[in-house]
């Protein structure tokens, strides 16, 4: 069994059901990949979206490590090229143990960024600054711009099971809008250097 499958099984108890969901997400991503134009205005997030995001985040925060890892393993399984790019940043002979630790660390960092953005929704200038600078650093890590927007759909599919009783299309839209905004500024930063 591959290391990714083992990590996923250790977090979820099974790898079968989420594999099916991930296949759907991959085809969605293929349809929605679009060229980035830094001249476009930032995507909008309504006051209702902000309310929904804060309500959801209180619940998701209780399982932050699990959601982060599932997001990343899902992203790597559906898009092996992202996995290769991520690991090429590291020494070639990274052991399983080190690899697992790197994956967890990045997953937690992404979750930490989502946390910061949710609290910066009340101060959009700070959100812009945070994500633009993160984008510049990702350009320096040689991450391709088109990889950035792959994170949102995986993240949304990882939080859904924790919010089953609340989830509606409106909730999904609020999370999509948050990731659109985060990715917009990250990509803007990547294009700026
Ligand atoms: C919404 C998307 C993403 C967020 C919020 C995010 C967040 C972060 C954060 C907070 C760090 C810590 C270092 C720093 O602040 O500069 C980091 C590092 C890094 N990220 Fe991301 N990231 C995202 C997407 C990606 C993707 C798609 C890749 C694909 C290859 C990637 C590859 C890396 C690499 C190689 C590092 C280098 C440092 C390390 O391994 O610690 N990131 N990311």
From TrEMBL:
Domain spans labelled Globin: 44-191
Keyword annotations from UniProtKB, A to Z: Heme, Iron, Metal-binding, Oxygen transport, Transport
Keyword check for Transport: yes
Similarity comment: family membership: Belongs to the globin family.
Protein name: CYGB1-like protein
């Amino acid at each position: 069994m591959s290391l990714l499958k083992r990590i996923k099984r250790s977090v979820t108890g099974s790898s079968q059901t989420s594999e099916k969901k991930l296949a759907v997400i991959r085809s969605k991503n293929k349809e929605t990949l679009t060229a980035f134009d830094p001249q476009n205005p930032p995507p909008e997030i309504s006051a209702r979206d902000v309310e929904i995001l804060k309500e959801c985040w209180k619940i998701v925060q209780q399982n932050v490590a699990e959601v982060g890892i599932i997001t990343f393993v899902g992203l790597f399984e559906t898009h092996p090229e992202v996995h290769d790019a991520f690991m090429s940043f590291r020494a070639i002979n990274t052991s399983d143990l080190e690899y697992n630790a790197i994956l967890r660390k990045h997953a937690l960092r992404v979750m930490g960024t989502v946390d910061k953005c949710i609290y910066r929704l009340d101060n959009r200038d700070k959100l812009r600054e945070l994500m633009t600078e993160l984008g510049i650093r990702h350009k320096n890590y040689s991450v391709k711009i088109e990889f950035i927007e792959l994170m949102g759909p995986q993240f949304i599919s990882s939080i859904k099971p924790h919010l089953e009783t609340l989830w509606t299309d409106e909730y999904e839209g609020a999370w999509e809008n948050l990731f659109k905004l985060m990715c917009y500024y990250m990509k803007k930063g990547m294009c700026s250097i």
